Amino acid sequence: MARTVAKCEICREWIDAERLEAVPGTRLCREHAEQINQYGGEFLTVAREDRTSKAGSLKINIGGVTTERVPNKKAIDQLKDDYEMQLDD
What we know:
single chain; two-stranded antiparallel ribbon; elongated; 21% strand; alpha+beta; 89 residues
């Protein structure tokens, strides 16, 4: 179930409910989601090989690949730094 209310991690403005529904796990408003693309995007896709061999076995059997979407913390930190610099100007 998606969150119905959340604030942007950068500007602390409310994130649209439609965005929260469309992009589960988002921590950015629409404006900052567009800006973060210059740093590699809001999310990274991490892939992990699924082993089907027994634990401790020297023989490695790969059964497939599992992917997971994780927040791009480095990009979020860079965008946050840029935003704070703009406020100081």
